[in-house]
Design goal:
alpha+beta, Immunoglobulin-like, 6-stranded mixed sheet, Helix Hairpins
């Protein structure tokens, strides 16, 4: 906690995904406290009750070996807690892999994210624009982040909007997030990836739909195009400032995934075409 900011942003969720995860954190903490607090209390009691002092009247029982009742309690309660936590975690994990329920029936926004050394590239395929080290989204609209890496494996994380998801070369991961109010939210890479790791930070700004549309229009009118050679330069190791691009090469994101897919070996190479064909992957079987 000493490393957190004053706001403890993980505990200030903004949006349905982060709120569900926050409730799971709180519930898990309460359930675990059922074990932790009694264990600490018993430790203090035992140290005091059976301390080695001349006036201690605690009974001396050198031949005592076991208690089926006590063993049932101290094994049974943790087993029950693990089962409860497992069920709740699996339930929420699978539910969050789906598109959030949006009462306003807003059309989801897709953003293709590529982690590089040491910067983030955000491509808006429908708007045909791109940004570096920042993203803008409309409030109350589900956002589908498609994630990959053109560098070492990393992890995409916007704490106030939801949990992290890995970015892996040759893989297309998915993460649904949504902001239920306007604001600017801190994001970063959550995996160590070399010298510039500490600088892999970005902001996600949530605005109303009209402001988002104006922002897209402004990018198209005032920003340069991202060419293939421009991307190749951007992908080289090094830091990068905040940038915007009025257009991107057609299919750039899929080409990045495909390019790194050629470097897979064994089961990963066999599995990638299946996942690409399904195109609905929200996680990864870590056996592959």
């Amino acid at each position: 906690m000493a490393g957190c900011s004053d706001k403890y942003i993980v505990l200030h969720p903004v949006g349905p995904v982060a709120q569900k995860e926050y409730h799971l954190i709180v519930l898990s903490t309460i359930i675990c406290a059922i074990v932790v607090i009694p264990v600490i209390a018993l430790l203090i009691f035992i140290i005091y009750r059976y301390r080695d002092t001349p006036d201690n009247k605690a009974p001396y029982e050198p031949h005592w070996s076991e208690s089926k009742l006590l063993e049932t309690i101290w094994w049974g309660i943790p087993i029950i807690i693990v089962i409860i936590l497992g069920v709740l975690t699996v339930r929420d994990t699978y539910s969050l892999a789906k598109e959030p329920v949006n009462p306003k029936k807003a059309k989801p926004l897709t953003i293709q994210v590529t982690s590089l050394d040491w910067k983030w590239l955000f491509i808006y395929p429908d708007q045909k624009i791109a940004t570096v080290n920042y993203a803008e989204i409309p409030a109350n609209v589900p956002v589908q982040f498609e994630l990959t890496s053109d560098a070492p494996m990393n992890s995409f994380w916007v704490p106030q909007l939801g949990g992290q998801e890995y970015t892996m070369p040759g893989m297309k991961m998915r993460l649904w997030l949504e902001a239920n109010k306007t604001g600017t939210f801190f994001g970063s890479g959550a995996n160590f990836s070399g010298e510039g790791f500490a600088h892999m930070q970005f902001n996600v700004t949530s605005t109303n739909q009209a402001d988002f549309n104006s922002w897209v229009k402004g990018i198209k009118q005032s920003s340069p195009a991202l060419t293939q050679s421009g991307y190749d330069h951007l992908a080289q190791k090094g830091l990068a400032k905040v940038q915007s691009f009025s257009s991107v090469p057609n299919g750039l994101f899929d080409k990045i995934v495909e390019k790194n897919g050629h470097h897979m070996t064994g089961d990963m190479k066999n599995e990638y075409p299946k996942m690409k064909q399904k195109d609905n992957m929200s996680g990864m079987d870590m056996k592959h």
